[in-house]
Each structure stands twice: as structure tokens, then as C-alpha cells.
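sry for the spam today, last one i promise. C-alpha cells for design, 457 residues
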């Protein structure tokens, strides 16, 4: 049934006791012509915007394509993206001047995370007087977040406190967050997939939702069992292709739900375990880092597919993370390796970590691309940014940042290219251009000097 809350998307929402399941774009339920012109209505798939962040920079030589334009070859680190190459715009030459010291001394890791979406020089403090700037995602969320159940989602794979000194006199709030609702209001990412799933599919009555979550667990029922009656009444209104779309969507929801259930109530999201070390279902399986990234990515896909939100951030790890990567044969800490000092052995391990991260990104994009929507795919109606606030982690440099833009922005981006910007072009110019495409105008952001006109030929 159409959502009665007019401030929320007109997407169909199936409801049950303590549960709500927003459905994907359905051709059969196009509204009347009077609604067709409304931005984000069910007649036209809306645009989605997400920012995926990785820490500690990259191994630049194996990241950067050697040629520009449409005929570039993917370098070794980016090879996992080959199946979505035509959907990518690899961007080089962009910088964040406010990530540099500018008189504030060391602390490049903290600055690189806090400046990533704000373009603002963070105030150096280990205490409560933090100050950065509003981030690009939150500018969008504050402007258009009322069209969806959630104005934005902030996801991550690390639990982190905003208290204390994490980098050379900078508060941990700077290292642990890229999303800022205001200069002193970081929005911490949620790292628990169970919490994200329950939030996405909870009903509007919180008390009822908690009660029925407990009931589902006791009776071992799926979220889908709670919306079946609504689903049956909808089926007769759908065409064959939309029925298949609903069935595929339900299958995806249930598959993610099973993976979340397998974690159990005692699961650890902070430890890495090999698959053959996972305890039996129901005892609280440890969550490997690769599966953690994939599960959070799949939850984001469901959120975008059901139009639960159109704005998201996802931190693979906090900035300065020293996580080890034993799962790919790299037992050393990431941050330690990033200070390679030209050591070829460390170079090789860093590039393996970078490729691992990109492979997870590729899987996420392929999932988006596999979902038909409107006259294209879900990925066609997305703008997904992947990158870091540092270039070379050893040099701590903030120029020529590693940035990839995936998706076609609803046909407004000429993808399939490697685009080189003039040196010292502010990354915030790109953020302004993406906001424009979301229908959100900002005169300036951080240290921006204009728009990224290079996104179109």
C-alpha cells in the first residue's frame, strides 16, 4: 500500500506487526501523470549517493592508469573492477589542501578522514572542542532526506570511540568519522550488521518492533513472514516482470537475513576468523573482515533498492587502522605497512591490501548492476565514490588522491574513462557536482573553487 506519510517516498511499503519492507521500483505501480513530474516519485528511479572510504592511502603506481580517456587499462590494483569498467570514472589530480598541516603539525591521518567529505581544516584538539565542517553527504541528507525513511545511513566495520587522542593531538572523533552533521557533530558509523538490518526493516512503532523482533527470534521466523498478508494483496496488481522482481528482492532480503541470524547474539564483529573456525549456527559466529564488508555492502544495496535512503557513507576501517590482513596472507598491520619507506616487500603487501579492498568494492558494484531498475540498472541510478583521504601513506600526501566514481548518475555522467584533473583541484569541486545531480545546490563546500565539469564530455 502507498505509504501514508507524505514526507516519505511514494514507494510501496509492506507492513506487518513491528515490520516494514519498502519495495523496489515497480513499473506496475506507476502513479498517475500528476505525480510523474515529482522528483523521486515512483515514476522515475531516484538518484542515490554513497561515499566509501578506505584508510592509509594506496600504492599509487599500481593504482593509477597510465593513459587517459576511454581506452585506459585498469592497473593491477583496480583489475577486480573489470566487469564494471564501463560504469567507472577513475579520477586523478584531486586534492584536499585542508588535510595538510597548514601550521598544525603532525596528524595527517586524523585530518585525512575528517576533511574527506567536509573540505574543512579540523581544529586540533584531543578533547570536547572538536570542530570540522558539515560533510557533503549531510548537506544532501538535510536537503532531501525527508523523501525516505532514513535521511542517511552511516556504516562501517570498526567500532570506535570519539573520545581521546588518536593522532598527534587530534581527537579520535576525527579519525573515526567521515560524516559530520555540523562542525562539532560527527555521525559515528554503525558497525553491527544486526543493528543495521533491524533498523532497516523495523516498523514505525519502536516498542512493537522490539517485541516482534524478540518474537521472530523465539519462533525462528523471517521478517518476510510478518509482511506476507500485505504481499499477497499486492501480487494481483503486478505484471509478470514485477512479480519476478519482488520474488528476487524477497530472496535477497532473506539471504541477508540468514547471514545476520548466523552471527547469533554473541557474535564478535571485531575479530577475524577463518571460515572453518566458525562455530555452529546459533552459537554466535565470528565475522571475518571480508564477510563483514560484504554484509554491510549488501545491506546498503537493500537500502538503496527499497529506497529506505538515498544517502550513505561506508568506512571500511577507521583512518590509521592497523588491522592485519591474515585472510589474504598479510599478517602485519595496515598502518605499519603504509610506512613502507620504499621497502619492496612492504610495497607488495600494501598493494595486496589495496586490491583486496577494491575486490570488495567490485562485488558491491556488481550487485548494484545486477538489479534492473527503470530503463537500466540500480547502478545506473547511483553515484558511488570510493577513495581515501591520503595518496601515499608513507608520505602522508593529500594531493593526487585515489578516487573512483562509479555509476552513471541517471545518465548525467560519461563513465568508462580515466579523467585527470589539473593539479591541486579541490576534491570538494567533485562533491558540489554530485550534489547538483542530487538536486541539492550549495554555493560552496570547504575549499571548493567551482564544479567538476570534467564529468561530462
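last one done:
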Amino acid at each position: 500500500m502507498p505509504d501514508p506519510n507524505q514526507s516519505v517516498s511514494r514507494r510501496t511499503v509492506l507492513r506487518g506487526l513491528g515490520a516494514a519492507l519498502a519495495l523496489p521500483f515497480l513499473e506496475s505501480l506507476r502513479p498517475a501523470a500528476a505525480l510523474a513530474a515529482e522528483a523521486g516519485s515512483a515514476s522515475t528511479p531516484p538518484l542515490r549517493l554513497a561515499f566509501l572510504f578506505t584508510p592509509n592511502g594506496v600504492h599509487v603506481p599500481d593504482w593509477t592508469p597510465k593513459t587517459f580517456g576511454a581506452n585506459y587499462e585498469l592497473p593491477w590494483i583496480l583489475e577486480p573492477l573489470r566487469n564494471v569498467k564501463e560504469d567507472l570514472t577513475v579520477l586523478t589530480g584531486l586534492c584536499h589542501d585542508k588535510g595538510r598541516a597548514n601550521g598544525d603539525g603532525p596528524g595527517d591521518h586524523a585530518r585525512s578522514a575528517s576533511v574527506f567529505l567536509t573540505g574543512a581544516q579540523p581544529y586540533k584538539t584531543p578533547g570536547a572542542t572538536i570542530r570540522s565542517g558539515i560533510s557533503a553527504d549531510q548537506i544532501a541528507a538535510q536537503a532531501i532526506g525527508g523523501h525516505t525513511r532514513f535521511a542517511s545511513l552511516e556504516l562501517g566495520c570498526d567500532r570506535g570511540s570519539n573520545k581521546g587522542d588518536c593522532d598527534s593531538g587530534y581527537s579520535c572523533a576525527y579519525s573515526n568519522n567521515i560524516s559530520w552533521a555540523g562542525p562539532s557533530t560527527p555521525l559515528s558509523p554503525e558497525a553491527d550488521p544486526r543493528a543495521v538490518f533491524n533498523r532497516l526493516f523495523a516498523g514505525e512503532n519502536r516498542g512493537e518492533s522490539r517485541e516482534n523482533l524478540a518474537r521472530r527470534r523465539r519462533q525462528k521466523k523471517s521478517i518476510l513472514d510478518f509482511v506476507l498478508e500485505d504481499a499477497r494483496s499486492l501480487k494481483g496488481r503486478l505484471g509478470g516482470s514485477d512479480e519476478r522482481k519482488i520474488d528476487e528482492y524477497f530472496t535477497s532480503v532473506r539471504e541477508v537475513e540468514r547471514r545476520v541470524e548466523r552471527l547469533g547474539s554473541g557474535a564478535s564483529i571485531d575479530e577475524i576468523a577463518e571460515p572453518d573456525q566458525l562455530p555452529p549456527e546459533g552459537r554466535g559466529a565470528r565475522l571475518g573482515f571480508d564477510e563483514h564488508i560484504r554484509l554491510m555492502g549488501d545491506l546498503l544495496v537493500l537500502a538503496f533498492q527499497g529506497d529506505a535512503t538515498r544517502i550513505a557513507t561506508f568506512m571500511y576501517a577507521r583512518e590509521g587502522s592497523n588491522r592485519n590482513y591474515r585472510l589474504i596472507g598479510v599478517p602485519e598491520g595496515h598502518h605499519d605497512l603504509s610506512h613502507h619507506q620504499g621497502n619492496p616487500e612492504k610495497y607488495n603487501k600494501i598493494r595486496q591490501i589495496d586490491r583486496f579492498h577494491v575486490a570488495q568494492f567490485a562485488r558491491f558494484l556488481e550487485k548494484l548492476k545486477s538489479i534492473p531498475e527503470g530503463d537500466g540498472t540500480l547502478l545506473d541510478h547511483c553515484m558511488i565514490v570510493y577513495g581515501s583521504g591520503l595518496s601515499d601513506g608513507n608520505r602522508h600526501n593529500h594531493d593526487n588522491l585515489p578516487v573512483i566514481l562509479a555509476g552513471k548518475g541517471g545518465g548525467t555522467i560519461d563513465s568508462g574513462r580515466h579523467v585527470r584533473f589539473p593539479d591541486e583541484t579541490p576534491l570538494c569541486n567533485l562533491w558540489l557536482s554530485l550534489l547538483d545531480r542530487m538536486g541539492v545546490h550549495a554555493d560552496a563546500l570547504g575549499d571548493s573553487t567551482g564544479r567538476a565539469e570534467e564529468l561530462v564530455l
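The chain has a mean pLDDT of 88. ok im logging off now
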